[in-house]
Amino acid sequence: MLCVVENHSLPRTAAFFDLDKTVIAKSSALTFSKSFYHGGLINRRAVLRTAYTQFVFLAGGADHDQMERMRKYLSALCKGWNVQQVKEIVAETLHDLIDPIIYDEAASLIEEHHTAGRDVVIVSSSGAEVVEPIGELLGADRVVATRMVVGEDGCFTGEVEYYAYGPTKAEAVKELAAAEGYDLERCYAYSDSITDVPMLEAVGHPYAVNPDRALRREASSRGWPTLVFVRPVRLKQRIPGFTMPARPALLAAAAVGAAAATAGLVWYTNRRRSAAAFARI
Question: Got the DSSP string for the chain?
């Protein structure tokens, strides 16, 4: 699909990818919930809420109001978490949890963009310390992601320094384009969510990937191509001799995922079912 190699006498270009349900088959941050539970960072109720929220996310995504509730709840949830402990948990589980859920189609598309001479940029609402090692694994050139504040004691303060969501993603794309000399009219962007319309609008070649219902309608009305990714595959199965980087990963906003896990529709509708559901885990 992207066989034409860039003419390097022209301005540079890039391909901007949302992460969750676009490059990987689940929420990058929600996927770590059981690891956080075993590490003592969250309780059983949060694990259950995470599982339910992951289901809701996979079934239809999260709208603006739900995302805002997720953002607010994470402030209380992650406050006091020791960053070093979080780093160790993520480093120990990144390979087992993330590598198997990378879409083969997305990995191939990233390779095609690189072959065509374009930079690849991951733009995600998940935390920078989770997204960066995933981006490195995928061979991405840059990452834009949510950043949490870390206090002098090495713990999360519960404050969000930068939230990479909605219009903020589009602003980051435009700022990066200005800094790197990207011609946005010749750039590409990929996302599954209606909340990423501003980012998709910012480039000349937007694509809806596994779109939620709202984005599917929007893409249809605007004539944006729609892609369907269905084949999660371990990278070592795609690349002979591939080994996972040993570099430890941080997770400021895996807190984002754990927070998201307890937000939105999960509040009261599942309280009475929590005990029974946990007994079946």
Answer: ---PPP-TTSPB-EEEE--BTTTBSS-TTGGGHHHHHHTTSS-HHHHHHHHHHHHHHHHH---HHHHHHHHHHHHHHHTT-BHHHHHHHHHHHHHHHHGGGBBHHHHHHHHHHHHTT-EEEEEEEEEHHHHHHHHHHHT-SEEEEEEEEE-TTSBEEEEEEE---THHHHHHHHHHHHHHTB-GGG-EEEES-GGGHHHHHTSSEEEEES--HHHHHHHHHHT--EE----B--HHHHSTT----------STHHHHHHHHTSTTHHHHTHHHHHHHHHT-
pTM of the predicted structure, to 2 decimals:
0.76
CA dihedral (223, 224, 225, 231) in degrees, to 10, reads -140
For the record, the structure tokens of 177 come out as 């384009």
pLDDT at 55 > cutoff 60:
no
pLDDT of residue 48 exceeding 60:
no
Mean pLDDT, residues 13-39: 83
Smallest Cα–Cα separation from 22: which of 202, 166, 207? 207
What amino acid positions are annotated as catalytic residues?
18, 20
Residue 60's pLDDT band (boundaries 50, 70, 90)?
A: low
Query: Cα(167)–Cα(194) distance, rounded to whole angstroms?
Result: 11
